[in-house]
Amino acid sequence: MAYMDEHHYLLIIGYLEGKITEEETQYLLQKVQTDKEFSDAFEDIAEIWSARKAIPNNNLRANDALNRINKKIDELGAIPDQSAKRHSNTIILKLRPLLAIAASVLLLVCSFWFYNNRLNNNSAGSLAFTENRTTPGQKKKISLPDGTVVTLNASSNLRVTGNFGDEKREVYLEGEAFFDVKRNPEKPFIVHTGKVATQVLGTHFNVSAYANDANITVSLVQGKVQVDMNNDLSKRIILDPGKQMTYSKTDGQARVTDFTTEDITGWKENKLVFNYDSWTDAAKKLSRWYGIPVQLQDSTLLRCKLKGTFENIPLTKVLGQIKMVSDISWKMQGNTMIISGKCN
Q1: Which stretches make up the FecR protein domain (predicted)?
Q2: What pLDDT does residue 201 have?
Q3: What is the C-alpha to C-alpha distance for residues 333 and 233, in angstroms, rounded to an integer?
Q4: Rounded Cα–Cα distance for residues 331 and 176 (Å)
Q5: Beta-sheet pairing, 169-180 with 189-193
Q6: What is the pTM of this model?
Q7: What does the pLDDT read at residue 87?
């Protein structure tokens, strides 16, 4: 097993006993994710733990360790004569403290594993929720118990935890929403979107996190927000008004840029906005806005960018105006809009 110094060992024990702070817990979590030796030590301990516990994720190494330990215990129990029995008892007595330590550490790993899992991947499996959905083309305004107002864009889903407001105010978003958060310094408001968590005390901001989009985007209109990615404190970003954080799901990297408020929040006023969107992203946006599947027929369109604002007009008129500046055509095939053409 990889070396673990006393400080970290006591820190982990403290975590198990619930005696460390949230900051120390975050430190442990970050160290597991960034320090391979430390992570390996946890993995080794997990193998020992697996000797008497269910093994998560069908870990083959852990199963092998479990089989080896069970085999050794069975061999000890099979020794028949008294001297051998005394010898067996001696070995078992010698092993007992080790197994007790292993069990304790194993419990630690189990707790840490579940804690880590809870923070990752939306971490909401065991919580009760109130769910709010919008269909393609639909927008909905939602008032939360604390006075916060959320405007939900088309094809979106907002889940509000059943214990919302007890200690924290947590919601889970898939899609796009604008948040007008009621200020409460004692109860932070947290928006979970995949591996990105946005925490505020009271402010106005927009979050776009559709499942089929390549990026998650947080755009701050007023106040301050804290954005965390992959539970990695070293990647924490504090946004000022007018700044936008774009997180790539592909490489896990984030960048901060300026933005124009109308480009980001225009959808609230029924304005369909393309801000140098790729045709791939534009097709997704058209599909969500008008509620019909939109497909691109020509790969040459993938090299094009779209810039423009369209206020509450039918899809064919939007495409007609785009055609004035771009060589495109379209047709309906069943219930699907097929767009073809090339960049000018």
Answers
A1: 133-226
A2: 74
A3: 49
A4: 28
A5: parallel
A6: 0.62
A7: 44
- Range 183-191, long-range pairs (CB < 8 A, 24+ positions): 184/146, 187/146, 189/146, 189/148
- Residue given tokens 């991947």 in the structure block: 121
Mean pLDDT of 85-101: 45
- Nearest of 175, 188, 147 to residue 285 by alpha carbon: 175
Tokens 């989009």 belong to 213
CA atoms within 13 A on the CB side of 173: 28
Q: In degrees rounded to 5, what are phi and psi of residue 226?
A: -110, 125
Measure the N-to-C terminal CA separation of the chain; round to a whole number of Å: 62
3-state secondary structure of 304: coil
The token pair that represents 139 in the structure block: 């927008």
179 closest CA partner among 211, 170, 305:
170
Closest C-alpha among 251, 333, 318 to residue 285: 318
- Domains, the chain, ordered by start: 6-43 (no CATH), 129-263 (2.60.120.1440), 270-342 (3.55.50.30)
Measure CA 232 to chain center.
12
Task: Say what the pLDDT of residue 235 is.
Answer: 86
Q: Please, where are the H alpha helices in the chain?
A: 6-16, 22-34, 36-49, 60-77, 82-119, 261-265, 279-290, 315-323
Per-residue pLDDT tens digits for 248-257: 999 999 999 9
Q: Judge whether residue 23 has pLDDT over 80.
A: no
Give mean pLDDT, residues 172-181: 97
Integer Cα distance of 122 and 197 in angstroms: 9
Exposure string over 34-55, b if 16+ CB within 10 A, otherwise e? eeeebeebbbbbbbbbbbebeb
221-225-230 Cα angle (round to 5): 125
Taking the C-alpha atoms of residue 206 and residue 221, their distance in angstroms, rounded to an integer, is: 8
The CA-based angle 153-154-156, given to 5 degrees, is 80
Of 253 and 41, more confident: 253
Q: Cα(136)–Cα(130) distance, rounded to whole angstroms?
A: 20
Q: Which residues make Cβ contacts (< 8 Å) with residue 149, sequence separation at least 6?
A: 141, 142, 143, 179, 180
Length of the chain counted residue by residue:
344
